[in-house]
């Protein structure tokens, strides 16, 4: 009995490790504030899309919860615009972007992590400097290049600017630099060639960073609106985010509930992907940050 009391005390949480009660209250209040700012708009959007025609979305009489929940707005989205075509086009761009990003960001990151070749630091500096320029500063010249290639109003023209990203190359470089040099030396002594070391040693160790590249590429390609708006012309080539913007046109009456439903539809794939890959995503962020 006497030994059970000290043991129970050791198992109890110690306030000294977590901070004072006042600090804990402030910390959790800040976390709730951040949660409300990030999740609140999405939740309001979902609830507004479930409202019936007679309920106000904005104004003094509007309520947060729908009085008579209905899926009418979602049915109208599929009736007014070809959502299946938009989703197919967006998935095509996403698959092409993820494939090219994985192939070239992993190989380029691997080469940048290997010392001993001339120009390595210059390439690294160019990649970092390219991240300082916003997309709007190169948008016109990029469009002229796409036009000269004859890729206007095509999914290839949407995908080509996202062929490979500097941030993903640097992320993979940081993940590969975290691999101990001794492991590679032992693999070389066992007779493993360059390709074998890259495939069986470096890639498995950078699985978390690869998931980060996949998630970031998916989100940027799926949510991109400005560049498809510039490149695409015909409806059968529109991506989901661009096509759903037609719900706000005057020909459809601009029903706020339908617009909210379209926005929820476009967000669902991103949320599903993040929930599935969040464990590897956070590991990859921390791994890619090493020696970046």
Describe this protein's structure.
By secondary structure, the chain is mainly alpha-helical. It is 70% helix and 0% strand. Helix 9 (166-177) packs parallel to helix 15. The longest helix has 33 residues, at 256-288. The protein starts with a helix and ends with a helix. Residues 288-292 have low confidence and may be disordered.
Keywords:
single chain; 292 residues; mainly alpha; 15 helices; disordered C terminus
Described by strand count, sense and barrel closure, the largest sheet is: none
Number of helices: 15
Radius of gyration based on Cα positions: 25 Å
Structural classification: mainly alpha
**DSSP strand tally:** 0
What's this, in brief?
With 292 residues, the chain is mainly α. 70% of the residues lie in helices and 0% in strands. Helix 5 (83-112) crosses helix 9 (166-177) and helix 12 runs antiparallel to helix 15 (256-288).
Note the topology.
Blueprint: H1 4-11, H2 15-18, H3 21-49, H4 72-80, H5 83-112, H6 120-130, H7 135-148, H8 155-159, H9 166-177, H10 181-189, H11 194-205, H12 207-223, H13 226-231, H14 240-244, H15 256-288
